[in-house]
Amino acid sequence: MNFSEVFKQSNQLCKVSPDGKYLATCVQYRLVVRDFNTLQIVHLYTCLDQVMHMEWSSDSLFIFCAMYKRGLVQVWSLEQPDWHCKIDEGSIGLVSSRWSPDGRHILNTTEFNLRVTVWSLCTKSVSYIKYPKACQKGVDFTADGRYMALAERRECKDYISVFVCDDWHLLRHFESETQDLAGLEWSPNSCVLAVWDNCLEYKILLYSLDGRLLSSYSAYEWSLGIKSVAWSPSSQFLAVGSYDEKVRILNHITWKKITEFEHPATIINTKAVVFKEVEKRPVVGSEDLSIHQMTVDNSLFSTQSKYEITQLPAQVPVIKPDPDRANPKIGISALAFSADNRFLATKNDNMPQSLWVWDMQRLSLLAVLEQTAPVRCFVWDPRRPRLALCTGNTKVYLWSPAGCVSVNVPVEGSFQVQSLFWHCSGSSLVLLSKEHICLCYMEAEEEK
């Protein structure tokens, strides 16, 4: 592995363009666009206020910066740096902005979710969509970019509207069989819409494009329900994580449960491998160091770590949640399928230091990574079965079917990795600390 120099960023605003050629970062009110390969600055834009959100268009030709406090969105062109566009929502305010799949319309949600405004960059026309619901995930586009599903709330009932993205006309409008809809998500093949209820009721509904209810699934009643949902890239599986510390896998033919994955405190599965991170602080003799080394070379004093395979049965560290507090730290908060559909990674909130990897061919536990600190972020390589994770320290961790590795980020000063994401080619990782970014390049042998 090789690492780049460190660059500044603010609000964790750092995105790689969809074509993989550019890296955009925001530093306060400035937008910096770099060539991803050389890291040279190619464009520098100045916004009217501190940027709260930044997003690339699907064709990588435009980028917008949203300033929610001022109700403003500024759009910049990479092809024509002199061209720019300003969208002002005025006194109605702004809480979220996003691109449409064609990269030529911007959807703004106003304060109090009064409406969604669709702004066209080509014709300068404006369309309004009323009654959007304020929820965890209320808008989603199909992977082919043709349709948009929007959750609505009117007269104390949940509805779903499906719009055609070409001209924003309404294709279908139907009532959802939810008490209080929490989110919706299209399958990757754009055929099925998954809709789930809020955490007070375990209910997931599956609708076809024309609004027919294909199936409804509820695992139990009278207890906290669904916490996370993820489609497999092939659309064959729908993984549903819940507050009872289990993941249920639904199949795409009957929409019935084919298995459930439990997260026990004691692992006795003989086919699973438990990797435990073990820290080791290096012993450095003071006479061996010059003053320059002591002040500059942070890696001399950083804690090294490696993984050791734990003998089974193995105990997983468990934190008992406080039942009197809202949003208890319990249950499956994050799920992610690998790009080849072979693996599923899960995180159980009352076992925050452990990451679980499941084999989707055998439908069984494959590995558990037990870290020394809570897992902050984990993400699959978009090209191969390889998982990267971070825990808020100076290391980045990688898992693949071949094993685990812990790598120290060798930069000046302390670089605490708060989050990370892959380049679309899978050849490099972008690491984010509180105020900086660093690129981690995989070597060719590792990629094989």
Automatic annotation (TrEMBL):
- InterPro entries found in the cross-reference section: Centrosome-WD_assoc (IPR052778), Quinoprotein_ADH-like_sf (IPR011047), WD40/YVTN_repeat-like_dom_sf (IPR015943), WD40_rpt (IPR001680)
Instruction: Cite the PANTHER family for this sequence.
Output: WD REPEAT PROTEIN 8-RELATED, WD REPEAT-CONTAINING PROTEIN WRAP73
Q: Which organism is it from?
A: Onychostoma macrolepis
> This protein is called what?
WD repeat containing, antisense to TP73
Question: Pfam families attached here?
Answer: WD40
**Gene Ontology CC terms:** microtubule organizing center; MWP complex
List the SMART domains: WD40
